[in-house]
């Protein structure tokens, strides 16, 4: 049941996420997200606001599997 709750919570997140939401989506801590960004996770910055897309997180994980 917990797994279903986690999936539902991830699906409720917006496509363009702030860093806190991206941590939830990627199921990682803030510290780990910072490492992902340093390693190449794409972050969009517009008007000084940083956003991370769900696709960017999915692509990052897919590249890590290769």
UniProtKB/TrEMBL annotation:
It comes from the Bacteria. This is Helix-turn-helix domain-containing protein. It comes from Levilactobacillus acidifarinae DSM 19394 = JCM 15949.
């Amino acid at each position: 049941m917990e797994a279903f709750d986690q999936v539902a919570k991830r699906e409720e997140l917006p496509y363009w996420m702030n860093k806190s939401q991206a941590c939830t989506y990627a199921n990682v801590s803030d510290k780990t997200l910072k490492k992902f960004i340093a390693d190449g996770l794409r972050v969009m910055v517009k008007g000084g606001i940083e956003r991370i897309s769900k696709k960017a997180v999915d692509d990052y994980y897919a590249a890590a599997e290769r």
